[in-house]
Every structure is written in C-alpha cells, then in structure tokens.
Amino acid sequence: MLKTIFKLIGSFRFAILILVLITIACIFGTILPQSNLKYRNLFLFKGVGDADSVFHSYWFLFLLILLVLSLTTCAINRTIRFDKTNSKIVIKGKNTLRTISFLITHTSIIIILIGAVIGRIYGFNEYVFLGKDDVYYLKREKVWIKVNDIILKFNEKFMPIDYKSDISVFSEPELNFLKREVIEVNKPLIFRGVYYYQSSYGVKDIITETICGRGKEMIIITPEEKVEIRKGMPNIIVKNDLIFPDSNNPRAVISYFTNGKVKNYGVIDAKEYTQFMGCLLKIHNVRKYTGIKIKKDPGILLVWIGFIFLSSGIIASFIKRLFDKPESDSDLSKTL
Q1: Rg (CA), the chain
Q2: Surface-to-core class of residue 156, CB atoms within 10 Å of its CB (0-12 exposed, 13-18 middle, 19+ buried)
Q3: Dihedrals phi, psi of 113, to nearest 5 degrees
Q4: Looking at the structure, do residues 169 and 211 belong to the same domain, yes or no?
Q5: Based on the domain organization, do 86 and 137 belong to the same domain?
Q6: What does the pLDDT look like over 160-211, one tens digit per residue?
Q7: Which domain holds residue 155?
Q8: pTM of the model
C-alpha cells in the first residue's frame, strides 16, 4: 500500500496534475480581487474555500505541500538507489555531474516551497493606523506598540517630501521597554523577526470649536464622516484630501449635505471663526495618524537559500554541457 502511494506521488503525471491545479488557483487569485466579500464562496470554491483569499486558503497550502512531496519523491527515485549488497546509498547514472545538477535543482525548488509553506503557516501581515501616543497590542507576538511621534516634512508648496514615525515596542504584561526607533518606508524597526514599516499617514480627526447659539462645543469630526452639529441643521462633512499641512494655521474644506447632495461648502481654519450655515466654526486641533505595516515571514531565509541552490544547479548544468564532447560525423551517421 505504502509502496503504491509512494509510486503515485513520485510519478510525473501526479506532479503535472498538482502544477495544473496550482496554476488554475493562481489565475483565479490574480483575476479576482482578493479580500473582497463579493467573491466569497464562488462557484467551484463554494464549500471548499474562499475565492477572495486564494493564496491564504488551506487548500492552496495543501496543494503546495503535495507539490513538495511529489518533487521530493521524484528526485529520490531518479537520483538515488539503495545498494542492498553493500548496504549503502548510490547515485544513479553514469554522468555524475548531470545527476548532481538535477538533484541540486530539484532540492532548491523543494527548499523554496518549504520556505513558502512555513511563511504561510507562521507568518503574518497586519496594517494598523495609530495617532500620536496611541498604543496597539500585537496579539501574535504579545507585545505593545506605541507611537511616540509622527514626523512630517513638506516643501514650500505643501507637498509631502518625507514622513516618519517614532515608535516603541513594549513587552507584556510588565510593559517593559524593549526597543525604540524612528521608522521610514524602507527603514523598518526589526524586533524578534518582526518588521515594522512606515506605510502611510493621514488625518485621524479634526477637533472643532463650534458655536451654534447654545454655547461653545468641542466636536470631533473624522474626515469623510457626516456630523450633525445641532438639531435642524443639515449634516456637514470634512474632506480629508483638502486639509492644508500648515502647522501654524491648518485649514479644512467642509461641505454640507441635504438628501445626499452638496448644498454649500466653506473653509475653516485655526486662527478665527468662520460663519457656516448659521454657526461659527474654528479648528481647535488636527490629529494625524500613521499607517504601520507589520510583517513576519520566518520562511524567507529558506527561500533565499533555495534560490542560491537553484542558481548553483543551473550553473552546474551549464558546466556539464560545456565539457560534453560534441558528437563526431561518424556518430551522427550511425544515429541516422
């Protein structure tokens, strides 16, 4: 029974079948937008997996494991045999260099696939959006992340030229300080194999001073969020993309809606009140956020090692061809 299964897994047809299935899955994973609920439980994936997360599904992982087993068995069958007489392992074939290059190439592909499987099982990607002094608990690593400061630089036209974040990592449960660093887009904080990248930035919310006939109020408005200031007054919305990054006098464009249609708009700033739809509005504070990408891939080292082996196998194959003796005319005539 085991011999039959071993023979089946190591067969060329089985390997081709697995490769075809993986190719079809990759086509669907490329064409269909991932992380889109619209494609969840779609036709042939229904009851088997989710079409909106092809590359993170367990059945795709199972196909990769089958491919590893198939390539391993195939490589063993074609390159190694056990000599019962002398009780030792012997490399098949007269051309040792060709056999070794074949073995190295297949081994490298197996190592790459194993690295991918390990990364899929034990790795993760997360995106978090935090304001200054905000704290986030990374449950997978049991550590706390705190944003100490958000550093933005603009040119004379108020276009962003650089953005960084000063973050700290603390342990649980004592909240002992572990590491602190200023991260950038291509300069992450690295701690225990986890990479913390600067990903994006933006406006978290705007605190406005609002006077609408019943005293001054502090109202927090999240960009693109409709807020009703008082009874009888239509909703207003603050446009995130039109907030000017002038730290001395930040300004924001606001609009007001009735029945889903824009009826009026205006600009509020931090220096003086602006009259808007019977109210007086002024920016009290603009709170920014930083987007942090958190990534861990414990299998990436194996992937790099696999690529090194793959390059070595290809080089060995070329060397073998370089030293092969060309066929003479007599040999060609015999062949014909």
Answers
A1: 31
A2: exposed
A3: -65, -40
A4: no
A5: no
A6: 778 889 999 988 656 677 899 999 888 999 998 899 999 888 778 788 887 7
A7: 125-203+291-296
A8: 0.68
